[in-house]
């Protein structure tokens, strides 16, 4: 019952990437049989900004990033809704799951106020957090003990796992092209200067923020143009 680990991290790491800002330009210039290789920095920035502003999205699809992730299942479910991506996830049928469970840290906004579709989240009281922590720890430990018992009794992993809660961690890789990544970022972050305000859950916003940090490091001009043009996917 005690061999379980509670975590509050949302882990995203760079695994691999394809292309760079110059490739975005090269793909766009294919229509006039040019490469853009002779363009100055300012002209490259201006051209990518033009593509973003005018929503010429296809050149951005030629570049992609592969992220390694470790996420609680309830965040994974939200990630999996982004269909224009390729996901390879650890199997609960072929492997035994690890006893890793999400427990939000104190201070995570936990009280929902406002109208449907326009909720705000406020910090809860000490008692509310303690109640959440107690329930999460108790159900995770109890469910993990049942899972282990069922496996010990010979029940298949694919069925035994169904007793586990959605705060258990999963891991894997997601590859997403830049156009789709910008769509994900527009929906899963909440930046005040965005043309359309996002209303992401706290945990998936942590995931998106880390993806965005990696995106900005590898594709600085594309990222800057996305941000400058109101964070709308082209
Ligand atoms: C705040 C918030 C709340 C949400 N609440 C819910 C909820 O309660 N229940 C729920 O089920 N989901 C919910 N979602 C998920 C949401 O409905 C989308 O599934 C998710 O955000 C992925 O967006 P997407 O379809 O644009 O991305 P992708 O699936 O990656 O698609 C990218 C783009 O490709 C195009 N595209 C993809 N597939 C099709 C298609 N079949 N037909 C036409 N065009 C297509 C669209 O232009 C789309 O924007 C929520 C998302 C957010 C951000």
What low-confidence regions span 5 or more consecutive residues with pLDDT below 50? none
CATH class label of the domain at 5-104 and 169-228? Alpha Beta
- List the strand order in the largest sheet: 2-3-8-4
How big a fraction of the residues is strand?
15-25%
Calculate the mean pLDDT score and round it: 96
* Heterogens: flavin-adenine dinucleotide
Which radius of gyration do the C-alpha atoms yield?
Answer: 21 Å
Q: Report helical residue fraction.
A: 40-55%
Looking at the structure, the CATH topology of the domain at 5-104 and 169-228 is Gyrase A, domain 2
- Biggest pleated sheet: 4 strands, antiparallel
Which descriptor suits the 3D outline? globular
Number of strands: 8
CATH architecture of the domain at 5-104 and 169-228, by name, is 2-Layer Sandwich
Structural class: alpha+beta
Order of helices and strands: EEHHHEHEEEEHHEHHH
Q: How widely separated are the two ends? A: 50 Å
Number of helices: 9
What order do the helices and strands come in, and which of them pair?
Layout: E1 5-7, E2 11-18, H1 21-29, H2 41-53, H3 58-61, E3 64-72, H4 73-80, E4 86-89, E5 100-102, E6 111-113, E7 120-122, H5 126-152, H6 157-160, E8 169-177, H7 178-188, H8 202-218, H9 220-228
Parallel strand pairs: 1-5
Antiparallel strand pairs: 2-3, 3-8, 4-8, 6-7
The protein binds flavin-adenine dinucleotide.
């Amino acid at each position: 019952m005690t061999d379980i680990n509670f975590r509050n991290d949302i882990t995203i790491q760079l695994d691999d990437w394809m292309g760079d800002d110059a490739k975005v330009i090269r793909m766009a210039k294919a229509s006039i049989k040019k490469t853009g290789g002779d363009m100055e920095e300012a002209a490259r920035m201006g051209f990518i900004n033009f593509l973003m502003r005018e929503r010429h999205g296809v050149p951005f699809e030629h570049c992609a990033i592969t992220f390694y992730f470790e996420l609680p299942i309830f965040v994974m479910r939200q990630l999996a809704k982004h269909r224009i991506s390729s996901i390879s996830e650890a199997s609960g049928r072929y492997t035994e799951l690890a006893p890793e469970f999400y427990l939000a840290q104190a201070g995570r906004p936990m009280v929902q106020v406002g109208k449907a579709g326009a909720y705000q989240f406020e910090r809860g009281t000490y008692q509310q957090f303690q109640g959440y922590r107690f329930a999460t720890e108790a159900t995770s430990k109890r469910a993990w003990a049942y899972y282990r018992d069922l496996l010990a009794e010979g029940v298949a992993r694919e069925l035994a796992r169904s007793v586990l809660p959605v705060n258990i961690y999963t891991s894997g890789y997601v590859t997403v092209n830049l156009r789709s990544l910008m769509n994900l970022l527009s929906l899963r972050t909440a930046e005040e200067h965005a043309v359309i305000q996002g209303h992401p859950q706290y945990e998936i916003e942590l995931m998106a923020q880390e993806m965005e940090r990696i995106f900005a490091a590898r594709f600085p001009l594309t990222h800057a143009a996305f941000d400058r043009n109101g964070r709308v996917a082209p």
